[in-house]
Amino acid sequence: MASAIPHLHFPVAWKTNPRIRKRKPATSCSLSEASPLFRAAKHTIDAYVKSGMVIGLGSGQASGMAIEYLGQQLRAGALKDLVGIPTSVVSASEAAKAGIPLGEYENSSQIDFAFDDVDIIEERTLISVIGRRRLQGEESIIQEKLVVSMADQLVFMVKEDLYKCGLEGSIPVLVESLNWLETAEEIDDLFLGDAEVWRRPSIGHADPLGGDFPLVTREGHSVLDVIFTSPIASLAEVAESLEKVDGVVDHGVVSKFPCKAIVASESGLSIVGNRPTNTVGGV
């Protein structure tokens, strides 16, 4: 096997932070009612969560706020008999601190409702990308996608600037570690001229081969970041193309119909789904 990727395009400026910074769980002092994301988190719980539900608990800043607010509602008696299904180790820790009873997604036959953060989301289709942030410990794109896909109802919480058409940036792709290089080259050929393919490192600086310590997920997969250098016309088409590549296990594109997005801005919240957009001002 070759020791370098002869066909991969190496971006010059794209590097990761050499230090791993774990996302801090939201705390009561971090919940600000002036924050658009907090308003989105609060509206998500108030509008969609009912007593007795099994809830998929998302990962990210808004999800952390929603988890803490959900715990407050449980302690106040406004909600009861809930079970949370975490999408990550971080959301499980946040839920435990908030006093939310937890279950495991492997043992859940039904999830009534789930909420989650996304890295970016496509207008109209609400197809989104997760997993751009560096995975920590036992976090899993597979677990996060499985939990949200099992939910009867799904809401994404996102800032206004991340809700757009013509998406840019990277899509993480999980591949079999044994033949990751061949898979990377095939993906590079697939998007030739439109994207660059780098293997994600676990620590340190990134390079196309994953640096000195390439990341291996808890399931034993390597992570390739497919970094698009031009706007993505259709996330659905990208996902379909990736799924046809030998060696690809999964990817960070999430597509679920129906679902809703709560788009947070300073002027209010826009609730977007398979119905016309409504604006919830001052929520």
UniProtKB/TrEMBL annotation:
PANTHER family to which the protein is assigned, alphabetical: RIBOSE-5-PHOSPHATE ISOMERASE 3, CHLOROPLASTIC-RELATED, RIBOSE-5-PHOSPHATE ISOMERASE 4, CHLOROPLASTIC-RELATED
A single GO molecular function term of this UniProt record: ribose-5-phosphate isomerase activity
Annotated EC: 5.3.1.6
GO biological process: pentose-phosphate shunt, non-oxidative branch
Listed pathway(s): Carbohydrate degradation; pentose phosphate pathway; D-ribose 5-phosphate from D-ribulose 5-phosphate (non-oxidative stage): step 1/1
Family, per entry: Belongs to the ribose 5-phosphate isomerase family.
Protein known as: ribose-5-phosphate isomerase
Pfam families reported for this sequence: Rib_5-P_isom_A
InterPro entries: NagB/RpiA_transferase-like (IPR037171), Ribose-5P_isomerase (IPR050262), Ribose5P_isomerase_type_A (IPR004788)
Catalyzed chemical reaction(s): aldehydo-D-ribose 5-phosphate = D-ribulose 5-phosphate
Enzyme class: isomerase
Superkingdom of origin organism: Eukaryota
Sorted UniProt keywords: Isomerase, Transferase
